Amino acid sequence: MTQSTSNAAAIGAASGASAKRGFWSSRMAFVLAATGSAVGLGNIWKFPYITGENGGGAFVLVYLLCIAVVGIPIMMAEVMIGRRGGRSPINSMRILTERDKLSLRWRWLAGVGVLASFLILSFYSVIGGWAVSYVGTAASGALSGQSAEVIGAIFSGLLGDPGKLLIWHTVFMALTMAVVVRGLRGGLERAVTILMPALFVLLLLLVGYAMTTGYFGQAVSFLFQPDFSKLTTEGVLVALGHAFFTLSLGMGVMMAYGSYLNKNVSIAKTSVLVSVMDTGVALLAGLAIFPIVFANGLEPGAGPGLIFQTLPLAFGQMPLGSLFGTLFFVLLVFAAWTSAISLLEPLVEWLEEQKGMNRLVSTLGAGGLCWLLGIASILSLNEWSGFAPLGMFAAFEGKTVFDLLDYLTANILLPLGGLLVAVFVGWFMARQALENELSLRGPWFTLWYGVLRYVTPVAVAIVFIYNLV
Ligand code: TRP
After folding, report:
1. Given ligand 1 and candidates 120, 121, 421, which is best to mutate, with the most ligand atoms within 8 Å of its CB?
2. Which residues touch 29 (CB under 8 Å, ≥6 apart)?
3. Does residue 260 sit within a domain?
4. How do residues 345-392 score in pLDDT, each as one tens digit?
5. Which residue has a Cα nearest atom 8 of ligand 1?
6. How far apart are CA 312 and CA 321, in angstroms?
7. Quick check: is 11 in a domain?
8. Is 397 exposed, middle or buried (0-12, 13-18, 19+ CB in 10 A)?
């Protein structure tokens, strides 16, 4: 990785007005970093299970619409704020508001993001820990040739054991902190260059296997034939929230990465490219998983354990399954890892900038707090599984700490952050500035601007109102 990209991790350090900031070594470096953040557990773990829980096709359609109408315009807006401000998210917002004489309160938009990233990382690391533990499980051969019952029991065994979960959560968080403390130096850019394509190839292989199960057609119709009777208003909110989650929007990550983007790169094309790759990985994961679900009579709405109960079955039955299984979970860990890094980075920056801590202390502090909160998510999978802290409210009935953190971040904080970005860029920034920054041709600019001003805020607001009232 070059000097310029290693600066990306040292945003806090480089955020002083006089600091010399680099740029991404190439457009490709930005695309890889942004894709590394976007493609993660959200695509391979979360997308399939929420699709299963929300009845398939209609949900997928709404999700794709949300990506196109809300996700891509907001990604462009975030990258643009970052590139124009040229600083860490909070300071970029400050610079932009000062320049246009707007309320300084807008910088709290980036504050919502810092809170969201803290909450997300706490449970993200727990799931990342599941993936780490499955590397060992797959490598040991314990999955080969097993029945769905045995595979299910292995998974429940993991969830029922807080000690094991804690160990793997700790390992995952330590991995994340180890990179953040050093800055994204050295191997990461190279690693992403190799690992992302490898993950893609392995997913294709799994889809190939899924085609041999005889249930591929059923899975395709489950995923792509909308049955609107299965769609609830909560499902629409989940789809919208997931569009933000999977594209890493609503909390300033793309602003941070955009601040290192060269002026001559097209923000629109790049954002579309990142979104398409992210969506592609999610759909491939769905096409790999659902045939196995149907072939083995499993429940599509099985919840967060879905991939851990289905993919091991496939690996258990295919030749060289232990090898491919191990490889798959290694790649899943990498995908989760690059995302987790992008979740911890803004927190660490914020501590450095606002509290004047050095990088080591801020990484240990932020990572340590996330780790601590993660323990609540671990316990809610076993000891506290019957504990619903906000259960007295109908909307949160039966939701454990883990469920609440997921709900609060993906369904409330991220869309709220995104809504504020859309309103800020669409209604407060000068149109001329946007035109210069995006250099989009006539009708494309009008389309983006119109969508960001009217469609995005209204869509988010309607979904909010329906669900919260
Ligand atoms: N997009 C990642 C995933 O799908 C998760 C993630 C990383 C994220 N950084 C983020 C989500 C920032 C929201 C905001 O797994």
Report:
1. 120
2. 1, 2, 4, 5, 189
3. yes
4. 878 877 887 788 888 999 999 999 999 999 999 999 988 887 878 777
5. 248
6. 9
7. no
8. exposed
For residue 311, the model assigns a pLDDT of: 87
Q: Whose CA is nearest to atom 12 of ligand 1?
A: 248
Q: What is the C-alpha separation between 25 and 31, in angstroms, rounded?
A: 11
Residue 297: pLDDT over 90: no
CATH code for the domain of 50: 1.20.1740.10
Q: How many domains does the chain have?
A: 1
Within a domain: 12: no
Residue 7 CA to residue 290 CA, distance in Å, equals: 41
Q: Is the pLDDT of residue 17 over 60?
A: no
User: How long, in residues, is the chain?
Assistant: 469
Q: Which two tokens stand for residue 424?
A: 């800020």
275 C-beta closer than 6 A to ligand 1: no
- Which tens digit of pLDDT belongs to each residue from 130-140? 999 999 999 99
Instruction: Name residue, tokens 């910088």.
Output: 107
Conformational region of residue 79, where left means phi above 0, alpha means psi within -120 to 50, and beta covers everything else = alpha
Tell me the two tokens of residue 210.
Answer: 């899924």
Report if residue 296 sits inside a domain: yes
Query: Which of 420, 460, 362, 451 is CA-nearest to residue 116?
Result: 420
Q: How far is the CA of 245 from the centre of ligand 1 (A)?
A: 5
The whole domain housing 60 covers 23-468
Structure tokens belonging to residue 251: 């909390």
- Using the atom order of ligand 1, give the atom closest to the CA of residue 249: 14
Distance CA 148, CA 243 (A): 31
